[in-house]
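Sample entry (492 residues):
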Amino acid sequence: MRVLLVSGVIGQLLRLFSVAFIAPIVLALWDREFGHAGYFAIGMVTTLVAGLLLGATYQRVALLRRSEALGEVAGTWLVVGHFAATPYLFFGLSPVDAVFESISGFTTTGATILREISVERYGRAFFLWRAITQWFGGLGVIALFVLILPRLGIAGRQLFFAEASDAASEPISPQVRQTARRLWILYSVLTVLLALALVACGLTPYDAIVHAFSTLAAGGFSPHSESFGGYNNPTAEWIVTVFMLLAGTSFTLQWKGFTGRPGAFFRDGEFVFYFGAMLLATLALAFVVAGGMPTEETLRQGAFQAASLISSTGFASVDYNLWSDEAKAVLVAVMLVGGCAGSAAGGAKVIRLILVLKFLWSEITQVLHPRAVLPIRYGRRIIPPEILRTVFTLWVFYLTGYLIVGLLLVLLGADYITGFSASLACLGNIGPGFAQVGPMAHYADLPALSKWILTLAMWVGRLEIVAVLALLHPHVWKNLQVKRTESKLRYA
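Predicted structure, serialized as C-alpha coordinates:
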Protein backbone atom coordinates (compact mmCIF):
# COMPACT_ATOMS: atom_id res chain seq x y z
CA MET A 1 0.00 0.00 0.00
CA ARG A 2 1.37 3.41 -1.03
CA VAL A 3 0.95 5.48 2.13
CA LEU A 4 1.57 8.89 0.54
CA LEU A 5 -1.02 8.16 -2.12
CA VAL A 6 -3.59 7.24 0.53
CA SER A 7 -2.84 10.28 2.70
CA GLY A 8 -2.90 12.55 -0.34
CA VAL A 9 -6.41 11.55 -1.34
CA ILE A 10 -7.61 11.86 2.26
CA GLY A 11 -6.10 15.35 2.34
CA GLN A 12 -7.94 16.34 -0.84
CA LEU A 13 -11.25 15.17 0.60
CA LEU A 14 -10.55 16.81 3.97
CA ARG A 15 -9.87 20.12 2.24
CA LEU A 16 -13.21 19.92 0.44
CA PHE A 17 -15.04 18.96 3.60
CA SER A 18 -13.93 22.19 5.31
CA VAL A 19 -16.61 23.99 3.26
CA ALA A 20 -19.32 22.22 5.32
CA PHE A 21 -18.48 24.40 8.34
CA ILE A 22 -19.89 27.45 6.56
CA ALA A 23 -23.53 26.55 7.31
CA PRO A 24 -23.23 26.51 11.14
CA ILE A 25 -21.03 29.63 10.99
CA VAL A 26 -23.73 31.51 9.07
CA LEU A 27 -26.49 30.31 11.44
CA ALA A 28 -24.47 31.27 14.51
CA LEU A 29 -23.86 34.75 13.06
CA TRP A 30 -27.58 35.05 12.25
CA ASP A 31 -28.38 34.16 15.87
CA ARG A 32 -25.73 36.67 17.04
CA GLU A 33 -23.79 33.90 18.78
CA PHE A 34 -20.42 35.18 17.64
CA GLY A 35 -18.44 32.94 19.98
CA HIS A 36 -20.12 29.87 18.52
CA ALA A 37 -19.37 31.12 15.00
CA GLY A 38 -15.73 31.36 16.06
CA TYR A 39 -15.73 27.76 17.25
CA PHE A 40 -16.85 26.53 13.84
CA ALA A 41 -14.48 28.92 12.07
CA ILE A 42 -11.57 27.40 14.00
CA GLY A 43 -12.81 23.96 12.98
CA MET A 44 -12.96 25.03 9.34
CA VAL A 45 -9.47 26.53 9.32
CA THR A 46 -7.99 23.54 11.16
CA THR A 47 -9.60 21.13 8.72
CA LEU A 48 -8.53 23.18 5.69
CA VAL A 49 -4.91 23.45 6.83
CA ALA A 50 -4.72 19.73 7.60
CA GLY A 51 -6.24 18.99 4.21
CA LEU A 52 -3.69 21.17 2.43
CA LEU A 53 -0.78 19.54 4.29
CA LEU A 54 -1.96 15.99 3.64
CA GLY A 55 -3.03 16.85 0.11
CA ALA A 56 0.53 17.92 -0.75
CA THR A 57 1.34 14.22 -1.23
CA TYR A 58 -1.59 13.74 -3.64
CA GLN A 59 -0.90 11.79 -6.83
CA ARG A 60 -3.27 11.10 -9.69
CA VAL A 61 -3.33 7.42 -10.45
CA ALA A 62 -5.18 5.33 -12.98
CA LEU A 63 -5.49 2.32 -10.71
CA LEU A 64 -5.60 1.80 -6.97
CA ARG A 65 -4.70 -1.42 -5.25
CA ARG A 66 -7.54 -2.96 -3.30
CA SER A 67 -5.81 -2.24 0.01
CA GLU A 68 -5.32 1.42 -1.02
CA ALA A 69 -8.99 1.89 -1.90
CA LEU A 70 -10.03 0.37 1.41
CA GLY A 71 -7.42 2.44 3.26
CA GLU A 72 -8.60 5.68 1.70
CA VAL A 73 -12.26 4.97 2.47
CA ALA A 74 -11.60 3.83 6.05
CA GLY A 75 -9.12 6.64 6.62
CA THR A 76 -11.47 9.30 5.25
CA TRP A 77 -14.32 8.31 7.57
CA LEU A 78 -11.97 8.28 10.55
CA VAL A 79 -10.02 11.46 9.79
CA VAL A 80 -13.03 13.54 8.75
CA GLY A 81 -14.87 12.36 11.85
CA HIS A 82 -12.04 13.53 14.10
CA PHE A 83 -11.71 16.98 12.51
CA ALA A 84 -15.49 17.45 12.61
CA ALA A 85 -15.20 17.02 16.39
CA THR A 86 -13.11 20.21 16.73
CA PRO A 87 -16.03 22.60 17.48
CA TYR A 88 -17.40 20.24 20.13
CA LEU A 89 -14.24 20.76 22.19
CA PHE A 90 -15.02 24.47 22.53
CA PHE A 91 -18.53 23.66 23.73
CA GLY A 92 -17.04 21.88 26.75
CA LEU A 93 -16.98 18.26 25.58
CA SER A 94 -13.94 16.19 26.51
CA PRO A 95 -11.84 14.77 23.64
CA VAL A 96 -13.38 11.30 23.96
CA ASP A 97 -16.91 12.76 24.10
CA ALA A 98 -16.27 15.07 21.14
CA VAL A 99 -14.92 12.25 18.97
CA PHE A 100 -17.75 9.93 20.07
CA GLU A 101 -20.39 12.51 19.09
CA SER A 102 -18.71 13.27 15.77
CA ILE A 103 -18.12 9.66 14.72
CA SER A 104 -21.67 8.86 15.81
CA GLY A 105 -22.82 11.56 13.42
CA PHE A 106 -20.76 10.57 10.40
CA THR A 107 -21.54 6.87 10.79
CA THR A 108 -25.23 7.86 11.14
CA THR A 109 -25.39 5.96 14.42
CA GLY A 110 -27.13 8.68 16.43
CA ALA A 111 -25.82 7.59 19.83
CA THR A 112 -25.31 10.75 21.85
CA ILE A 113 -22.95 11.64 24.63
CA LEU A 114 -24.90 14.77 25.62
CA ARG A 115 -26.43 14.72 29.09
CA GLU A 116 -28.59 17.68 28.20
CA ILE A 117 -29.95 18.21 24.70
CA SER A 118 -30.84 21.88 24.84
CA VAL A 119 -30.78 24.58 22.18
CA GLU A 120 -30.67 27.15 24.97
CA ARG A 121 -27.39 25.68 26.24
CA TYR A 122 -25.58 24.81 23.02
CA GLY A 123 -27.24 27.03 20.41
CA ARG A 124 -28.91 26.15 17.12
CA ALA A 125 -25.66 25.98 15.14
CA PHE A 126 -24.43 23.13 17.35
CA PHE A 127 -27.41 20.90 16.53
CA LEU A 128 -27.37 21.90 12.88
CA TRP A 129 -23.75 20.72 12.72
CA ARG A 130 -24.71 17.36 14.26
CA ALA A 131 -27.39 16.94 11.60
CA ILE A 132 -25.03 17.99 8.79
CA THR A 133 -22.48 15.36 9.81
CA GLN A 134 -25.22 12.73 9.61
CA TRP A 135 -26.48 13.95 6.26
CA PHE A 136 -22.98 13.75 4.76
CA GLY A 137 -22.53 10.27 6.19
CA GLY A 138 -25.92 8.98 5.08
CA LEU A 139 -25.21 8.32 1.42
CA GLY A 140 -21.46 8.19 1.96
CA VAL A 141 -18.83 10.90 1.99
CA ILE A 142 -16.87 9.16 -0.77
CA ALA A 143 -19.93 9.03 -3.03
CA LEU A 144 -20.19 12.81 -2.72
CA PHE A 145 -16.51 13.52 -3.25
CA VAL A 146 -16.30 11.23 -6.29
CA LEU A 147 -19.02 13.42 -7.76
CA ILE A 148 -17.39 16.80 -7.07
CA LEU A 149 -13.71 15.86 -7.31
CA PRO A 150 -13.06 14.72 -10.90
CA ARG A 151 -9.32 14.78 -10.20
CA LEU A 152 -9.76 11.40 -8.53
CA GLY A 153 -9.89 10.12 -12.10
CA ILE A 154 -10.39 6.42 -12.70
CA ALA A 155 -9.48 5.69 -9.08
CA GLY A 156 -12.77 7.30 -8.07
CA ARG A 157 -14.61 4.25 -9.35
CA GLN A 158 -12.66 2.00 -7.00
CA LEU A 159 -13.27 4.32 -4.05
CA PHE A 160 -17.00 4.44 -4.81
CA PHE A 161 -17.36 0.67 -4.80
CA ALA A 162 -15.00 0.20 -1.86
CA GLU A 163 -17.37 2.34 0.20
CA ALA A 164 -20.59 0.85 -1.16
CA SER A 165 -22.12 -2.36 0.10
CA ASP A 166 -20.91 -5.45 -1.75
CA ALA A 167 -24.49 -6.71 -1.77
CA ALA A 168 -25.94 -3.62 -3.38
CA SER A 169 -28.26 -3.89 -6.34
CA GLU A 170 -27.03 -3.45 -9.89
CA PRO A 171 -25.85 0.08 -10.65
CA ILE A 172 -28.32 2.46 -12.25
CA SER A 173 -25.68 3.83 -14.62
CA PRO A 174 -22.44 2.47 -16.09
CA GLN A 175 -20.68 5.74 -15.24
CA VAL A 176 -19.82 6.05 -11.56
CA ARG A 177 -20.00 9.83 -11.44
CA GLN A 178 -23.38 9.76 -13.16
CA THR A 179 -24.56 7.13 -10.67
CA ALA A 180 -23.34 9.24 -7.75
CA ARG A 181 -25.01 12.33 -9.23
CA ARG A 182 -28.38 10.61 -9.57
CA LEU A 183 -28.25 9.16 -6.08
CA TRP A 184 -27.37 12.54 -4.56
CA ILE A 185 -30.15 14.24 -6.53
CA LEU A 186 -32.65 11.72 -5.16
CA TYR A 187 -31.22 12.01 -1.66
CA SER A 188 -31.39 15.81 -1.76
CA VAL A 189 -34.90 15.93 -3.23
CA LEU A 190 -36.24 13.56 -0.57
CA THR A 191 -34.57 15.70 2.11
CA VAL A 192 -36.24 18.86 0.79
CA LEU A 193 -39.63 17.14 0.48
CA LEU A 194 -39.48 15.93 4.07
CA ALA A 195 -38.44 19.36 5.36
CA LEU A 196 -41.35 21.00 3.53
CA ALA A 197 -43.79 18.37 4.79
CA LEU A 198 -42.65 18.87 8.39
CA VAL A 199 -43.03 22.64 8.08
CA ALA A 200 -46.55 22.08 6.75
CA CYS A 201 -47.22 19.95 9.85
CA GLY A 202 -46.31 22.80 12.18
CA LEU A 203 -42.58 22.35 12.89
CA THR A 204 -40.36 25.39 12.64
CA PRO A 205 -38.14 25.57 9.52
CA TYR A 206 -35.09 24.96 11.71
CA ASP A 207 -36.53 21.83 13.36
CA ALA A 208 -37.82 20.60 10.01
CA ILE A 209 -34.42 20.95 8.31
CA VAL A 210 -32.48 19.33 11.16
CA HIS A 211 -34.86 16.37 11.31
CA ALA A 212 -34.92 16.03 7.52
CA PHE A 213 -31.12 15.80 7.48
CA SER A 214 -31.12 13.17 10.23
CA THR A 215 -34.05 11.16 8.84
CA LEU A 216 -32.85 10.65 5.26
CA ALA A 217 -29.41 9.78 6.62
CA ALA A 218 -30.95 7.16 8.94
CA GLY A 219 -29.12 9.04 11.67
CA GLY A 220 -31.47 9.95 14.49
CA PHE A 221 -29.92 13.07 16.03
CA SER A 222 -32.63 15.45 17.26
CA PRO A 223 -32.39 18.89 18.89
CA HIS A 224 -35.15 17.87 21.33
CA SER A 225 -34.37 16.05 24.58
CA GLU A 226 -37.29 13.65 24.00
CA SER A 227 -36.33 12.93 20.39
CA PHE A 228 -39.19 13.23 17.90
CA GLY A 229 -41.76 12.40 20.59
CA GLY A 230 -41.10 15.78 22.17
CA TYR A 231 -43.02 17.54 19.39
CA ASN A 232 -46.29 15.70 20.10
CA ASN A 233 -47.27 15.85 16.44
CA PRO A 234 -49.02 12.63 15.23
CA THR A 235 -49.17 13.72 11.57
CA ALA A 236 -45.46 14.49 11.52
CA GLU A 237 -44.74 11.11 13.13
CA TRP A 238 -46.53 9.27 10.31
CA ILE A 239 -44.65 11.31 7.69
CA VAL A 240 -41.26 10.66 9.34
CA THR A 241 -42.15 6.96 9.59
CA VAL A 242 -42.54 6.81 5.79
CA PHE A 243 -39.26 8.64 5.19
CA MET A 244 -37.38 6.48 7.70
CA LEU A 245 -38.62 3.48 5.73
CA LEU A 246 -37.26 5.11 2.56
CA ALA A 247 -33.93 5.85 4.27
CA GLY A 248 -33.50 2.11 4.81
CA THR A 249 -34.49 1.27 1.22
CA SER A 250 -31.93 0.98 -1.58
CA PHE A 251 -31.57 4.39 -3.26
CA THR A 252 -30.88 2.61 -6.54
CA LEU A 253 -34.25 0.87 -6.22
CA GLN A 254 -35.93 4.15 -5.31
CA TRP A 255 -34.50 5.84 -8.40
CA LYS A 256 -36.00 3.09 -10.55
CA GLY A 257 -39.31 3.16 -8.68
CA PHE A 258 -39.71 6.94 -8.72
CA THR A 259 -38.64 7.44 -12.35
CA GLY A 260 -41.27 5.36 -14.09
CA ARG A 261 -41.13 1.83 -12.68
CA PRO A 262 -43.17 1.87 -9.42
CA GLY A 263 -43.61 -1.90 -9.57
CA ALA A 264 -39.86 -2.29 -9.05
CA PHE A 265 -40.33 -2.01 -5.28
CA PHE A 266 -42.41 -5.15 -4.86
CA ARG A 267 -40.47 -7.11 -7.48
CA ASP A 268 -37.37 -6.70 -5.32
CA GLY A 269 -37.11 -9.58 -2.84
CA GLU A 270 -34.98 -7.60 -0.39
CA PHE A 271 -37.49 -4.73 -0.18
CA VAL A 272 -40.41 -7.15 0.23
CA PHE A 273 -38.63 -8.87 3.14
CA TYR A 274 -37.67 -5.49 4.66
CA PHE A 275 -41.16 -4.00 4.32
CA GLY A 276 -42.80 -7.21 5.51
CA ALA A 277 -40.58 -7.39 8.60
CA MET A 278 -41.36 -3.77 9.44
CA LEU A 279 -45.11 -4.33 8.95
CA LEU A 280 -45.10 -7.48 11.08
CA ALA A 281 -43.16 -5.71 13.83
CA THR A 282 -45.60 -2.79 13.71
CA LEU A 283 -48.59 -5.06 14.29
CA ALA A 284 -46.83 -7.04 17.01
CA LEU A 285 -45.81 -3.87 18.87
CA ALA A 286 -49.27 -2.32 18.49
CA PHE A 287 -50.97 -5.38 20.00
CA VAL A 288 -48.42 -5.80 22.80
CA VAL A 289 -48.38 -2.11 23.79
CA ALA A 290 -52.17 -1.85 23.65
CA GLY A 291 -52.63 -5.09 25.59
CA GLY A 292 -55.33 -6.10 23.13
CA MET A 293 -56.89 -4.54 20.04
CA PRO A 294 -54.58 -1.74 18.87
CA THR A 295 -55.62 1.88 18.57
CA GLU A 296 -54.39 4.53 16.15
CA GLU A 297 -51.94 5.69 18.80
CA THR A 298 -50.40 2.27 19.42
CA LEU A 299 -50.26 1.56 15.66
CA ARG A 300 -48.47 4.87 15.17
CA GLN A 301 -46.06 4.20 18.01
CA GLY A 302 -45.40 0.68 16.76
CA ALA A 303 -44.87 1.80 13.16
CA PHE A 304 -42.58 4.67 14.19
CA GLN A 305 -40.37 2.54 16.44
CA ALA A 306 -40.29 -0.37 13.98
CA ALA A 307 -39.31 1.90 11.05
CA SER A 308 -36.80 3.75 13.20
CA LEU A 309 -34.91 0.68 14.39
CA ILE A 310 -35.14 -1.51 11.29
CA SER A 311 -33.72 1.39 9.23
CA SER A 312 -31.14 2.09 11.99
CA THR A 313 -32.38 5.70 12.26
CA GLY A 314 -32.80 5.71 16.02
CA PHE A 315 -35.52 8.33 16.51
CA ALA A 316 -38.09 7.64 19.23
CA SER A 317 -41.65 8.88 19.60
CA VAL A 318 -42.00 7.31 23.06
CA ASP A 319 -39.63 5.98 25.70
CA TYR A 320 -39.78 2.31 24.68
CA ASN A 321 -37.38 1.61 27.53
CA LEU A 322 -40.57 1.52 29.62
CA TRP A 323 -42.29 -1.06 27.40
CA SER A 324 -42.68 -4.71 28.35
CA ASP A 325 -40.00 -7.33 27.69
CA GLU A 326 -42.16 -8.76 24.89
CA ALA A 327 -42.14 -5.42 23.07
CA LYS A 328 -38.39 -5.03 23.60
CA ALA A 329 -37.82 -8.49 22.13
CA VAL A 330 -39.63 -7.40 18.96
CA LEU A 331 -37.45 -4.28 18.79
CA VAL A 332 -34.26 -6.36 19.12
CA ALA A 333 -35.49 -8.56 16.26
CA VAL A 334 -35.97 -5.61 13.90
CA MET A 335 -32.59 -4.20 14.92
CA LEU A 336 -31.00 -7.47 13.78
CA VAL A 337 -32.90 -7.44 10.46
CA GLY A 338 -31.59 -4.00 9.46
CA GLY A 339 -32.09 -2.06 6.24
CA CYS A 340 -31.45 -2.75 2.58
CA ALA A 341 -28.11 -2.73 0.79
CA GLY A 342 -27.41 0.53 -1.01
CA SER A 343 -29.38 2.55 1.56
CA ALA A 344 -28.37 4.85 4.41
CA ALA A 345 -29.03 2.08 6.95
CA GLY A 346 -26.30 0.40 8.95
CA GLY A 347 -25.95 -3.23 10.01
CA ALA A 348 -25.43 -6.36 7.97
CA LYS A 349 -28.28 -5.58 5.51
CA VAL A 350 -31.41 -7.55 4.66
CA ILE A 351 -30.03 -9.15 1.49
CA ARG A 352 -27.33 -10.88 3.50
CA LEU A 353 -29.85 -12.15 6.04
CA ILE A 354 -31.95 -13.57 3.20
CA LEU A 355 -28.96 -15.38 1.72
CA VAL A 356 -27.91 -16.73 5.13
CA LEU A 357 -31.42 -18.09 5.71
CA LYS A 358 -31.50 -19.64 2.25
CA PHE A 359 -28.11 -21.23 2.88
CA LEU A 360 -29.20 -22.68 6.22
CA TRP A 361 -32.40 -24.06 4.70
CA SER A 362 -30.37 -25.61 1.90
CA GLU A 363 -28.04 -27.27 4.44
CA ILE A 364 -30.98 -28.72 6.36
CA THR A 365 -32.51 -30.04 3.11
CA GLN A 366 -29.14 -31.49 2.14
CA VAL A 367 -29.19 -33.62 5.30
CA LEU A 368 -32.44 -35.23 4.12
CA HIS A 369 -31.30 -35.54 0.49
CA PRO A 370 -27.49 -35.95 0.57
CA ARG A 371 -27.16 -36.52 -3.20
CA ALA A 372 -29.34 -33.64 -4.26
CA VAL A 373 -27.85 -30.62 -6.03
CA LEU A 374 -29.41 -27.60 -4.34
CA PRO A 375 -28.25 -24.31 -5.87
CA ILE A 376 -29.17 -21.22 -3.89
CA ARG A 377 -31.07 -18.67 -5.93
CA TYR A 378 -31.92 -15.04 -5.41
CA GLY A 379 -34.49 -13.96 -7.95
CA ARG A 380 -33.47 -15.60 -11.21
CA ARG A 381 -29.79 -15.78 -10.35
CA ILE A 382 -27.84 -18.65 -8.85
CA ILE A 383 -25.61 -17.32 -6.09
CA PRO A 384 -21.99 -18.51 -6.49
CA PRO A 385 -20.43 -20.29 -3.48
CA GLU A 386 -17.77 -17.60 -3.04
CA ILE A 387 -20.46 -14.94 -2.53
CA LEU A 388 -22.30 -17.14 -0.05
CA ARG A 389 -19.05 -17.67 1.82
CA THR A 390 -18.45 -13.93 1.97
CA VAL A 391 -22.00 -13.22 3.17
CA PHE A 392 -21.91 -15.93 5.82
CA THR A 393 -18.49 -14.74 6.99
CA LEU A 394 -19.76 -11.19 7.37
CA TRP A 395 -22.72 -12.34 9.48
CA VAL A 396 -20.40 -14.35 11.70
CA PHE A 397 -18.19 -11.27 12.11
CA TYR A 398 -21.18 -9.14 13.07
CA LEU A 399 -22.47 -11.65 15.62
CA THR A 400 -18.98 -12.13 17.03
CA GLY A 401 -18.54 -8.36 17.19
CA TYR A 402 -21.80 -7.93 19.10
CA LEU A 403 -20.63 -10.53 21.59
CA ILE A 404 -17.08 -9.19 22.04
CA VAL A 405 -18.07 -5.52 22.39
CA GLY A 406 -20.92 -6.42 24.75
CA LEU A 407 -18.63 -8.51 26.94
CA LEU A 408 -16.03 -5.73 27.09
CA LEU A 409 -18.64 -3.17 28.15
CA VAL A 410 -19.98 -5.47 30.88
CA LEU A 411 -16.44 -6.16 32.12
CA LEU A 412 -15.91 -2.38 32.27
CA GLY A 413 -18.89 -1.94 34.57
CA ALA A 414 -22.07 -1.78 32.47
CA ASP A 415 -25.03 -4.00 33.34
CA TYR A 416 -25.60 -6.74 30.78
CA ILE A 417 -28.68 -5.12 29.18
CA THR A 418 -26.86 -1.81 28.75
CA GLY A 419 -23.67 -3.50 27.56
CA PHE A 420 -25.13 -5.80 24.94
CA SER A 421 -27.78 -3.37 23.69
CA ALA A 422 -25.10 -0.66 23.35
CA SER A 423 -22.98 -3.13 21.39
CA LEU A 424 -25.85 -3.90 19.02
CA ALA A 425 -26.80 -0.22 18.74
CA CYS A 426 -23.28 1.05 17.94
CA LEU A 427 -21.87 -1.76 15.81
CA GLY A 428 -25.16 -1.81 13.89
CA ASN A 429 -25.16 2.03 13.65
CA ILE A 430 -28.62 2.18 15.24
CA GLY A 431 -28.03 4.60 18.13
CA PRO A 432 -30.20 4.05 21.19
CA GLY A 433 -30.25 0.78 23.08
CA PHE A 434 -31.97 -0.14 26.33
CA ALA A 435 -31.54 0.53 30.05
CA GLN A 436 -28.78 3.10 30.66
CA VAL A 437 -28.49 3.91 26.91
CA GLY A 438 -32.22 3.96 26.13
CA PRO A 439 -33.91 6.32 23.64
CA MET A 440 -34.36 9.16 26.14
CA ALA A 441 -30.98 8.57 27.81
CA HIS A 442 -27.34 8.97 26.75
CA TYR A 443 -23.91 7.30 26.73
CA ALA A 444 -22.28 9.95 28.91
CA ASP A 445 -22.08 7.86 32.08
CA LEU A 446 -20.06 5.05 30.51
CA PRO A 447 -16.32 4.92 31.34
CA ALA A 448 -13.95 6.63 28.90
CA LEU A 449 -12.57 3.30 27.69
CA SER A 450 -16.10 2.05 26.95
CA LYS A 451 -16.72 5.18 24.89
CA TRP A 452 -13.55 4.60 22.86
CA ILE A 453 -14.58 0.97 22.26
CA LEU A 454 -18.03 2.06 21.07
CA THR A 455 -16.53 4.80 18.88
CA LEU A 456 -14.37 2.17 17.23
CA ALA A 457 -17.42 -0.11 16.91
CA MET A 458 -19.41 2.61 15.12
CA TRP A 459 -16.60 3.17 12.63
CA VAL A 460 -16.03 -0.55 12.06
CA GLY A 461 -19.76 -1.21 11.72
CA ARG A 462 -20.23 1.54 9.15
CA LEU A 463 -17.41 0.06 7.06
CA GLU A 464 -19.02 -3.39 7.45
CA ILE A 465 -16.19 -4.90 9.51
CA VAL A 466 -14.43 -6.85 6.75
CA ALA A 467 -12.85 -3.72 5.23
CA VAL A 468 -11.21 -2.84 8.54
CA LEU A 469 -10.11 -6.42 9.22
CA ALA A 470 -8.59 -6.60 5.72
CA LEU A 471 -6.47 -3.54 6.48
CA LEU A 472 -5.10 -5.30 9.57
CA HIS A 473 -3.91 -8.24 7.49
CA PRO A 474 -0.11 -8.78 7.61
CA HIS A 475 0.08 -8.61 3.79
CA VAL A 476 -0.95 -4.95 3.90
CA TRP A 477 1.66 -4.00 6.47
CA LYS A 478 4.46 -5.98 4.78
CA ASN A 479 3.98 -4.03 1.55
CA LEU A 480 3.81 -0.48 2.87
CA GLN A 481 5.47 2.08 0.63
CA VAL A 482 6.17 5.54 2.00
CA LYS A 483 8.07 7.00 -0.95
CA ARG A 484 6.51 8.85 -3.85
CA THR A 485 5.86 6.79 -6.99
CA GLU A 486 5.89 7.92 -10.60
CA SER A 487 3.58 6.50 -13.24
CA LYS A 488 1.90 7.36 -16.52
CA LEU A 489 -1.72 8.13 -15.82
CA ARG A 490 -5.04 7.98 -17.58
CA TYR A 491 -8.14 9.91 -16.57
CA ALA A 492 -11.81 9.17 -16.77
